[in-house]
Amino acid sequence: MDAVRSALQPITHNLPAPIRDLGVSIIGDKCYKALLLDIDVENTECVKFAISKGLGIGIVGASAIVKVPQILKLLKSKSASGVSFLAYLLETSSYLISLAYNVRNGFPFSTYGETAMVMAQNVIITVLVLHYSGKASMAALFVAALAASAVTLFSEQTLGMKELGWLQVGAGGLSVASKIPQIAAIWSQGGTGQLSAFTVFNYLIGSLTRIFTTIQEVDDKVILYSFVAGFALNLVLALQMVYYWNAPSAKVKGKRKEALPANSPLTPSYAEVAASSTARPRSKGPTTRRRG
Question: How far is the C-alpha of 223 from the C-alpha of 205, rounded, in Å?
Fold first, then answer.
């Protein structure tokens, strides 16, 4: 280890100022000195903190595109089959409350940044679901209500921290409840429809990672328990995605129902066709017999 430290220290001690400042802003002076200047990998506290920060930043970055496949899938199919409006309504409401709670408490952005990214994509998906369900007017009402709620939640004059804290407890319940309509929709339809596998599995990994980063950086049991419950239901969704992986969509099932099945009582059997052809009298054709 001494040889590695001797080789790395000339580099870490001469990093450009912008990189050094960025490192200090992410992990702090203490851990920057321990991990980069002293190369002390035995400092478990700083190692776990640095890992937590790295994972948090990774989640925030990935969240910018986590629901893009879902958006593209809706636009391509022009169908909201398999996507629950209620699930997205509850999740978006939960994310808005959590975003306001984290911002007003001054928690590190790396511990909640994905909330803003995912919420923006949720709004787009919810509007598309309403549009393809023939409820375009409700989409405008949804956006207006969301904007009014945001103004209320972020305003200290309108809503105190104590009241916001109670709302955050409810937001944890909303986040958990938001998964139930989606799980029920998949179960009732016998397939995942237009639900994106990329989104589901990224949610599963992200919620598990958030449990670790919350333990390391945020001393708030309400947020921690909401991530634990969210991970459990994300796991159910992921298992459903695997189970129904090759199941036909509702649209395909509809087409199959329109086609007459081979064993339908309306379809004549081979025996019926044969009997019909035998019983049918043959028309008399021309004859070569002479009359006379």
Answer: 17
d(C-alpha 118, C-alpha 95), whole Å:
8
Structure tokens at 266: 């309306």
User: Which tens digits make up the pLDDT trace of 72-116?
Assistant: 989 988 888 778 888 888 889 989 999 999 899 888 888 888 889
Q: At 145, which amino acid appears?
A: A
Residue 120 neighbours by CB under 8 Å, 6+ apart: none
CA–CA separation, 196 and 199 (whole Å): 5
pTM score: 0.65
* Cβ-proximal residues to 80 (8 Å cutoff; 6+ apart), any chain: 74, 128, 129, 132, 133, 194
Residue with tokens 């955050």: 168
Give the angle 64-171-66 at the CA atoms, nearest 5°: 15
Cα–Cα distance measured from residue 275 to residue 282, given in angstroms and rounded to the nearest whole number: 14
Helix axes 136-154, 85-105, angle to 10 degrees: 20
